[in-house]
């Protein structure tokens, strides 16, 4: 790591001291969880108020339907093209700059009266909403191996809770005041995050210090190293596919649940259907407990992934076969499916972290890109199965099949296997971890070459 030079605009207590580097305290971890949460929430404020936006912009529902899609597209674009640069730039400056750019475009959303401008600004604001995907690799890097799962679970819980609160808050504020107050409130929350990060986030040195000029010169090579990771790290591919299957099932469930609960025998209002999100969030914010009592005791991430898959499978089976007869079915499915998702995510992030100690943001991009595909395909396939191939039972049956397929992926490659298929090394629980100061190559076995000067 390069040692950052002191800058006058950084508080003295945030400057990097190579002889006494700042520890990842619980307060910092919670700060990073809040930063990740409030920035992720920006992608979801529009969901409950699309009908209000359509009326205000004097257009149809179809005319505003692209707003959340553009937000997700902007976030995905930023993940692929911008966030990998966090491996080469100081994280504090990079994070605060992205947040400031996102806020600048967000101000336009608060005041514009033109739908086309609103759509463009939605994409541009989301393009720089990448704090979550910076914080997760950063916390994994800074954590001691014994506390890594616990710390990751805290940061992961931040976006989960914030996304839920964003939808609830947006609906309530827009119901009693103007929808623009939702966006002004969001701007205020972002400003608070920006200020607190400026006040307390240490000036962590760049992992691979590189000048902006050299970054621009080697930018295509930086992107290429992300693709290279897929065939250099079998554990990354396995973890990404396992998470793909879980996100597929979660997205399919939450999409088709709206159809189930709005039809006979339930016929619930949109308000009651929306409150079902509280059920899933209640289990997902318990991530620190999962990491303490499941992920850490099992040692090897693959084994806790299998446990998480079992939890999800039980929930899907109960919800699929009981959901059409009693509301307890979907409630149990929401609880267990989201709990399983959290266990799987914490475990898989533990598995991929040692692969690229000097490329955490790039490997995170490679990992999360596959998760996005799981969300998209789960939503599409769930809708298709529900509408044209048998309703709730068909969509649930598909999810059961996907979970079954994920067991095949898990069992094809053991936790100590260095190749693509096999169980060399056996079933032992003791993990291989990267200790502070340990040679990354020795811990991970292989490493994608970092971008060189030239």
UniProtKB/TrEMBL annotation:
GO terms for MF: transmembrane transporter activity
UniProt-annotated location(s): Membrane
Pfam families: MFS_1
Taxonomic path: Eukaryota, Fungi, Dikarya, Ascomycota, Pezizomycotina
Membrane topology qualifier: Multi-pass membrane protein
Keyword terms: Membrane, Transmembrane, Transmembrane helix
Transmembrane segments: 30-47, 93-109, 115-140, 152-176, 182-201, 222-254, 266-290, 302-321, 392-412
Assigned GO CC terms: membrane
Name the UniProt record assigns to this protein: Major facilitator superfamily (MFS) profile domain-containing protein
Location of the region described as Disordered in the Swiss-Prot/TrEMBL record: 432-454
Every Major facilitator superfamily (MFS) profile domain range: 25-454
Gene3D superfamilies: MFS general substrate transporter like domains
Alphabetical list of InterPro entries matching this protein: MFS, MFS_dom, MFS_trans_sf
